[in-house]
Amino acid sequence: MHNIPYTQDDFQRHPLMFYYEVTQACDLVCKHCRASAQEKPAPDEMSTEQSLALIDDVAKFDRKPTMVFTGGDPLKRADIFRLLHHAAKRGIQTALTPSATPLATKTAFQNAKEAGVQALGISLDGPDAAVHDSFRGFEGSFRKTMEMLATARELRFPVQINTSLTRRNFDLLDDIALLLADQKIMMWSVFFLVPVGRGLEEERIRPEEYETVFAKLWHHSRTKPYAVKTTEAPHYRRYVLQQGGHPLASPRGAGGPGESALAHQSGTHRAPLGVTDGRGIMFVSHNGEIYPAGFLPVVCGRFPEVSPVDVYKTHEVFRQLQNPDNYHGICGACEYRMVCGGSRARAYAVTGDYLGAEPDCTYPAGQHAVALQPGSPGGQTGT
């Protein structure tokens, strides 16, 4: 099943990526944290038994999604390796996003690999300690991150670097790209800020500056030894198509802006037409609440009272998000809506309407674009 490409027909049946926030506990105090993570686990965090049951439920999808164990810091859960091993036993591909704290040891990484983890997501928000540590609220975080990358290379773990883009590091993207060129990573994912959690305190870049960033990312996707993707900036796909590129595969063959490091490493789950919040994406919080995405806090039920499988297939919010023809304003009228559709999370955070127009897009709908129909090159893009 994993070797069959994920296609447009899969959207309404099963997600490509399933994110499970196993805990809100984390020893960092990141300025842009979606979860507003805290030192101790939340009192309503799901138990080991409930978490194992959630994994069993995810395995019931007709096609098992890739399951990303995130947080907070997933290494703060004493049972994390048991959960990871259980997912692997159920035939689920897994990835882990550890925080850069003393818990992220070589032994922890080895245990993760033995438990079946196939890729790591590691955050890096600046080219040096001064910038990165200010993001993370922890002196020494940059040094620890570089140690984690070295350990991952030693253990031959595919790595996706996650960089959160805000006003404070907007001018440093090229420096970060250069630093990553020597780290043997598989994927660089640049996250465009959604004002939720502690991200409300950060300043996101201006809409017109997205095009400047897109140009930089497009350049690095063609010149660096890793793939480049965006998170919560699906309009990058439109930019790539306008440059004559294909959003699925970079010219260097390292994958395109829609693939995770795990997908690239395994050659599976190649992301299709417009994967985005609720449309190929699903998120379950530490207490079982089900969302279209971690950055789109619209509760669609709670596990174990309801099944994520049923929610993804039948809940009104997911059904609306899975059809870009439902989107409002410029996003609903744009000829790139099936490829892009705008950030549903940012639309909700800024306007209160998860079907609303992307507030950080300056593209004039209906002008200078190639109309894209299912089956055209734009019909095989990703997140």
Structural class estimated from helices and strands: alpha/beta
Strand portion: 5-15%
Largest sheet: 9 strands, mixed
Spell the H/E element sequence. EHEHEHEHHEHEHEHHEEHHHH
> Uncertain regions: pLDDT < 50 for 5+ in a row?
248-259, 263-272, 365-383
Integer average pLDDT: 86
Just name the CATH architecture of the domain at 8-266: Alpha-Beta Barrel
Count of beta strands: 9
The strands making up the biggest β-sheet line up spatially as 7-6-5-4-3-2-1-8-9
- The CATH topology of the domain at 8-266, please? TIM Barrel
The 3D shape can be described as globular
Summarize the amount of helix as a percent range.
25-40%
Radius of gyration: 19 Å
N- and C-termini, Cα separation:
20 Å
| CATH fourth-tier homologous superfamily of the domain at 8-266 | Aldolase class I
* Helix segment tally: 13
CATH class of the domain at 8-266: Alpha Beta
